């Protein structure tokens, strides 16, 4: 589980498996820290790097990045420096496992980003999800249903790569 102090009161479930099937613009949940587009982290991007990334030893995504925007943290998890990334999508092409959803690397309009620490924006994030792929959720982790905790308040359904 990732430690993010989010100030969220409601729990949500993000279905990453179903979201991959949608071609339309997908909403992004963020936690606004300082200025928009530099410090925020997309919650879906964190989930992709945390759960489905296979943490390749040679990490072709890192080597191909022309902007040195990707690195591994102390837990071997890939992180992207938003202020360095030039959105070339080379990392998506280089990843042999389809870990990354292309829309995460596209510049979207502000209305597609929702600050999850704000209750109204959290409601709108859920409403904006295509096909109810993001819902309010009262349950807990359930590995049999591929549901895992990303943070205390955010659960994700995904096929987790297990070493
Ligand atoms: S989109 Fe391009 S610049 Fe951004 S992290 Fe991927 S390879 Fe690096
Ligand atoms: S290439 Fe793909 S699976 Fe491998 S470390 Fe990079 S994002 Fe993860």
Textual characterization of the structure:
With 163 residues, the chain is an alpha/beta fold. The chain has a single domain (12-157), classed as Alpha-Beta Plaits. 21% of the residues lie in helices and 16% in strands. The protein is built from five helices and eight strands. The chain has helices at residues 16-19, 43-52, 60-64, 90-94, 119-128; strands at 12-15, 28-30, 70-72, 78-80, 113-115, 134-136, 147-149, 154-157. Strands 6-1-8-7 form a four-stranded mixed sheet. Strand 3 (70-72) and strand 4 form a beta hairpin. The longest helix has 10 residues, at 43-52. It starts with 11 loop residues before the first strand and ends in a 6-residue tail after the last strand. Residues 34-38 have low confidence and may be disordered. One iron/sulfur cluster is lined by residues 64-65, 67, 69-70, 80, 85-91, 105.
Describe, in short, the structure shown.
This protein has 163 residues and is an alpha/beta fold. Helix content is 21%, strand content 16%. The structure holds iron/sulfur cluster (2 copies).
